[in-house]
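In response to reviewer comment 3 from the previous cycle, which asked for concrete evidence that the modeling workflow produces usable outputs, we include below a single protein chain processed end to end. The sequence was submitted unchanged, and the resulting structure tokens are shown without manual editing.
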Amino acid sequence: MSAIGRAIWFIESHFARDISLEQIAVAAGLSRYHLSRVFGLATGRSISTYIRGRRLSGAARLLADGNSTILEVALDAGYGSHEAFTRAFREQFGVTPESIRKQGHVRNIELMEPIRMDDTRTLKIDPPRFEDGPALLLAGLTETYTYNRTEGIPSLWQRFNTYFGNIPGQRGNVAYGVCTHADAATGSFRYMAAVEVEDADSLPNGFSTLKLPKQRYAVFLHRGHISAISTTAQHIFRSWLPQSGLEHGQTPDLIERYDERFDPETGQGVVEMWVPIKE
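The workflow returned the following structure tokens.
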């Protein structure tokens, strides 16, 4: 993955908290000076402008939902006062936080959307192993994406990781990224950031559950930076599966399994990709 792609992934995975240029530069593998220069050339925005826009865009969506006070949203976005937040919000969008909360939508403002992380590398992917996977009850946060616009997934994981380890009934410390409901007509799919749970009682607000049956899987390994995982998925479904003589199972479309070999702070490591196979 390119250095800018690594930088964008790190920002998208961590912008809800304070992050420094030094941290982003380390994640990208560049000096602070070089990162600042090439990020602007590649994206047309400074790093600070991008982070501020992403935080305020998230704040705008929360305000439109109407479930939090303006001060709560301001503090979550990293502003110490209602006044400082209102000033930054007006500079970004040309309207006040109060107006967005009152109208209940963000259709009249231009949000800062995540920058796409393109990766055209040719990966060397090892042949899969085959395993019989157990039945699982998963619980987590779910969003709908399209195959050509998946850059919002890191921020979904950022929200989910605030719950990880403290989810009622959580079993183990393995996280799962689950793709379901693929729609060829629209190019959309649902993605869940989840953990295995014992039951669906007392889950946090906004969580959904998914039951997976016991079934056989082909298990691939994605190595390297997580921002290139779509390249591995494309290889599996465009090359390996059509040539394998096997049929894809029914549910889910794909499971990403994140264990101790993956570092969620840097995005580096090994991710298992489980593809259900018909027997």
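The first strand starts at residue 129 and ends at 133. We consider this sufficient to address the reviewer's concern, and the full set will be provided in the supplementary archive.
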